Amino acid sequence: MTTFDYQLFVIGGGSGGVRAARVAAGLGARVAIAESYRYGGTCVIRGCVPKKLLVHAAHFLDDFADAAGFGWHVPPATFSWQKLIDGKNQEIARLSAIYQENLAQSGVTVLHGTARLVDAHTVEINDQQVCAEYILIATGGKPFLPNIPGIEYAITSNEAFNLTSLPTRVLVVGGGYIAVEFAGIFNGLGARVTLSYRGEQILRGFDDDLRQHLHDAMGKKGINIRLRDEISSIEQRSDGALDVVFSGSRNETQTFDAVMYATGRVPNIDGLGLARAGVELENDGGVRVDQYGRTSVASIYAVGDVTNRIALTPVAIREGAAVAQTLFGNASVTVDLPVVPSAVFSQPPIGTVGLTEAEALERYAEIDIYRANFRSLRHALTERNERVLIKLVVDAATQRVLGAHMVGSDAPEIIQGLAIAIRLGATKADFDATLAIHPTSAEEFVTLKEKTTRRQHS
Length: 458
What we know:
By secondary structure, the chain is an alpha/beta fold. The protein has twelve helices and 22 strands. It has helices at residues 15-26, 41-46, 48-67, 81-105, 157-160, 177-188, 208-220, 274-277, 313-328, 357-363, 411-423, 428-433, and strands at 6-11, 31-35, 109-112, 115-119, 122-125, 128-137, 141-143, 169-173, 192-196, 224-226, 230-236, 242-247, 252-256, 258-261, 265-267, 300-302, 342-344, 350-354, 366-375, 387-395, 401-407, 451-455. The longest helix is centred in the first third of the chain and has 25 residues, at 81-105. The model has no long low-confidence stretch (mean pLDDT 96).
């Protein structure tokens, strides 16, 4: 009989791996976890948490200006990038320490070092080999950088959190949620921002009305958005500034102090020894798993961004818990993900859950669309012409609400609550029968009356 050092060995100390380790230990398993950098993973160390802190910081410039309309006299504000980064670093260090402490208190053996697969049950870490009945890969993702001349001068979201100073002129390359979020951050903190995206419109995959609304709102804030754009090269000047050559119909060169690439993320699989252990990959580079998170090797599982499925922290957490319960909880648990709410912490932010209008038309013969576009009470006394967009997508036959979408202040907070209703199959009549909280932007979701009907093209 094989003697294992641990019943579960987790590679990766991010949200998914930590949850799996703690749940497994709580179910009585002997568990070890290894992390090569800092515990907390992408979300805590260089993703969701530090980004949200910077988003909060970027809001104050507008808040100071808006305060005058409500009778406040605010002296000219000054900003310290270093103080913001120092505060962010302290909070991240605190959270990372909590992650480690919680693991230890749960009875998990916490290791530091780079772990690699040797075979189906063996992991090598710090020049030692450890045997485990099961191995879980939870190494997350990493930024993708294209192979163009001068790409070494560009930064990604990893480096953006630790710049020594705030750049004056920033080019953000990409059109996804990371790109639009950082464009808003840099712009809100006082930089002159250009966003370059090769596609037809930012935020591919989101509802088209939301995409256009955010595009317009970002433009009002002074962000220069270039669509159908390509970067052919980056060259560094003697003073450190960067000359960026744009190709295509607008062939030109512009100078920036920083170029940030946010052109997607890829599974973090380098050096893991997956091939040696026989673990198969999908065509997109993600680890191939079944509905239980099991890879092509029966004793090896994977969760989170390394599988290149839905790259969201709550999804990784749910997947990690499901694997632990499946292995040690006497129950086969899958992750039910028919309705996944998400947010873009742009300025203004987006909250969304369920089907977009385009997705609904692919699945349903006829849908009803309800919209509202208005200026919120918050800006009634300010000079800011910022508008809120809300939208419901409804199946015309059953009147079930298929999707809810919003651009505007507190959109993520509002959509979180609506996600419960949509997951439970609420109808438009259920929304209509719900009393409004007045005056709020959220009340519009339960007072929408005018509809537009869309039908599938025959």
